[in-house]
Amino acid sequence: MPLPKITAPTYELNLPSTGKPVKYRPFLVKEEKVLMLASETENPKEVANAMKTVIKNCVLSRIKVEELCSFDIEYLFLNIRGKSVGEELAISITCPDDNETNVTVNLNVEDIKVLFPEGHTTEIEVGDDITVMMKYPSMDLFLRQNFEGEQVDPYSIVAECIDKIVTGEEVYEGSDCSKKELLEFIESMTSEQFLMINKFFDTMPKLQHKVMVTNPKTSVESEITFEGLGDFFG
User: Fold this and answer.
1) Mind listing the pLDDT tens digit for each residue in 105-121?
2) Which domain holds residue 104?
3) Where are the beta strands (DSSP E) in 54-151?
């Protein structure tokens, strides 16, 4: 007689980038084992691959996980982990007023959101009737930068994130252009135009949470900002 199958609960959240609902489940023992073994290797590439595997396995909606943007990935993984091992995070920090006293901050995963800075836009008018429409870094680019330790050339990052180039009635799809063509387009910009493109990355939405912490030794209260997965699990 076959053993009974255990059905994992399912949950739903809205992707920060689009607002579209996504169904997911907690990671199971087999996925927890994948994460644990990858962590024990202390190899960033192994950790990246394990994280990719867990997200792919746990997302139940029919979406291309590899094409999700970086802050969607962070938000998804944070919530998957929260439903898997507990929604309370205990994080040890050093009080900034004396840089020596350690305190523990307790955070609830449900309180952690993606911040959308004011004035952020994906459409950048660079002049000469040319508008560059940007897309957010993909999952693969995010993992390469944050977990695999790859030093990605900043111009290559911009090239990978160009969605469309619009001039007059002409629309050039970034996916239809070669990387060489996109890099040549970027290199033809003035410094001022390139700074306009960089503002897209500087103001890009990010996983962020702020708390007030009181130093028990000095009674000084300080604001602490957690930003990105590294701050929540580092």
Assistant:
1) 999 999 999 999 988 99
2) 88-111+207-234
3) 88-94, 102-108, 113-115, 123-127, 130-134
